[in-house]
Amino acid sequence: MSNWRKRNDALGTVNRGDPAESGLCTLCRADCQGKCETWLSSLRGRKMLYPRDFGEITSGSANIAPQGVGYHALRIQGYTHGAEGLPEGLSNSADDCIFPNVNIETEFGNEVKTKCKVPIMTGALGSTFIAAKYWDSFAIGAALAGFPIVIGENVVGVDREAVIEDGKVVKAPELDRRIKTYLKYADGGGAIFVQLNVEDTRNGVAEYVVENYGDDVIIELKWGQGAKDIGGEIQVKSLEYARFLAERGYVVDPDPTLKKNQEAFKNGSLQSFARHSRLGGTDADTVSALRESFMNSVEYLRKLGFKRISLKTGAYGMKGLAMALRFAADAGLDLLTIDGAGGGTGMSPWNMMEHWGIPSLPLHSKAIEYADILNEQGIRVPDLALAGGLAREDHIFKALALGAPYVKLVCMGRAPMIPGFLGSNIEGVFYPERREKLNGNWDKLPNTVTEFGETPESIFAGWYDVMEIVGEDEMKNIPFGAVALWTLVDKLSAGLQQFMAGARKFSIDSISRSDLVAANKETAEVTGLPYLTEAFDEEAKEILKG
């Protein structure tokens, strides 16, 4: 268990419910009026790195002796001397070794390298309605900040305007909208992924993507997620739409084609339907059969023309983790994302989120142990992204250090969505005529926003930075949610730079496992990291001996 508090008086943050280990509320509402740390950071940016009311307060940490196994129980090392990974042209002088000079750019890939301005990526934003509603904010914000975004499963299948002929998609307006929105503002950093599940594969989504977008898109195979071990779901409140989805070949529960369920819906005793995807891998009874099927899928995608292919795996046990690592290595994949239990951005069954799968830190620790085994055999380990309840700059550093040198990105699911909600709510107040289209939930600004200003320029700390990127004329086309996301990422970036400077690491590649210690013996045992006072203890004693 983590010990995150509902209130953090030093930062002035409040969680509506008991916080998850990420620091986010367990239930994040699109209409929330604040004010968790991520919510406030979407407005104030890097100012949220510091305690409030500077000059009038002192403050102290309440996370000194955390209990239980989790990312909260990892501590980041600081060092008294030295500097590693300085950018070319800089020296190890005090004038050059400052945190703004820390280079947080990263890259991933096998034969083709994809560069990112910050070492984060989004989780999969698929067929859930909330992903569609706020896509412009998510995609434009990610493009401007220079990090990858993932279009999740089933986007084509749930699109009423998509045209599927002879079992293959020939028109996909919603998928097109999502891809084109990101690519319009992408500028030398990041990438856009499109996931494939069973239904997407049957519908010919890969063929459609490569024919229309070629090298601009990374295709991603999917083995579950950290929130659940069944296929993705959405909830629909229209009988007509439920029947449409059933006709598209989805599993819809209860069955909307049955007369009894139609009557129940009309009479109000049945108020919604759940659309489910199918389990993958059901035709493979052995590891070798699954490997053959997987390698055939990768070979087929390469023949189609995809030069960059990734795999997303969920919080399965050690056998599933080992298969994901070995298969991805043998196939020469560009990225493997490993998602620990407890995450989720949609409507996963609650008790499944609570009780299924391997939590993030134990899963990630085993992944690195297994990666070392591959490396010792001379097998190239695929570049990794770690996911599962990660939301802050300390999480980013810890995941990169825990998984060094294999981890290149930290995948964040819920955190990047919050600025999209918040910005859309604010924009809807300033432009009521856009409110419905924006899915804005407010008709006036709450006090939690007006305390910072009454205009967009004063509310968003990143407003003028975004304007510098896109130009004054283009600002009218930039959603406030994208500005909010850029502002949040600026805070995460500056915070990461500060942690890295304190660890004397001035590039992502210079971060190492020795930059972490475990705050309790249980976490030390799970991760293989030294306990707090055991790290560098022998070196310390040599100093004392002269």
Describe the overall structure.
- Helix 10 links the parallel strand 16 and strand 17.
- The protein has two domains: 153 residues, no CATH class; 309 residues, Alpha-Beta Barrel (TIM Barrel).
- The protein contains 21 helices and 20 strands.
- The strands form six sheets. A nine-stranded parallel beta sheet has the order 6-19-18-17-16-12-11-8-7. A three-stranded antiparallel beta sheet has the order 13-15-14, with helices on one face.
- The two termini are 42 Å apart.
- With 546 residues, the protein is an alpha/beta fold.
- Helix 1 packs across helix 19.
Beta-strand share of residues: 5-15%
Poorly predicted ranges: none
The CATH homologous superfamily of the largest domain corresponds to Aldolase class I
Main β-sheet, spatial strand arrangement: 6-19-18-17-16-12-11-8-7
> Mean pLDDT across all residues, rounded?
93
Which term fits the overall shape? globular
Briefly note the CATH topology name of the largest domain: TIM Barrel
Characterize the biggest β-sheet.
9 strands, parallel
Overall number of structural domains: 2
Total number of helices: 21
Q: Kindly provide the name of the CATH class of the largest domain.
A: Alpha Beta
Using the CA coordinates, give the radius of gyration: 23 Å
For the record, the CATH architecture of the largest domain stands as: Alpha-Beta Barrel
Give the CA-CA distance, first to last residue: 42 Å
